[in-house]
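Note to self: keep these together.
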Amino acid sequence: VQLQAFGGGSVQAGGSLKLSCETTGLDLFSANIMGWYRQAPGKEREMVAQITSGYSTDYLESVKGRFIITRNNAKSAVYLQMNNLKSEDTGVYYCRSDRGCSHWGQGTLVTVSS
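Structure:
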């Protein structure tokens, strides 16, 4: 199983980025809960957004209204559209699949400068 996240980069506050996570080897991708997590320097990893097999979504309070998580089951991929980025959004972003057993991607760095 491989989860490959990409799309990170450096952006000024107020800007946007779209992260993508492509997966291979997952058994029945559509049945997995897919999530995006982030880890800021010196902090613990936290859940940013997740989307269930039924397309229900959940977000970290601080990103509600700014981030949107979507999935494309035909492409076995999950995305995170991040708008109005703030410096506190800086961190390494990881995608995660969960269907009882979880798998993590390698992370992509997002840097937001104020």
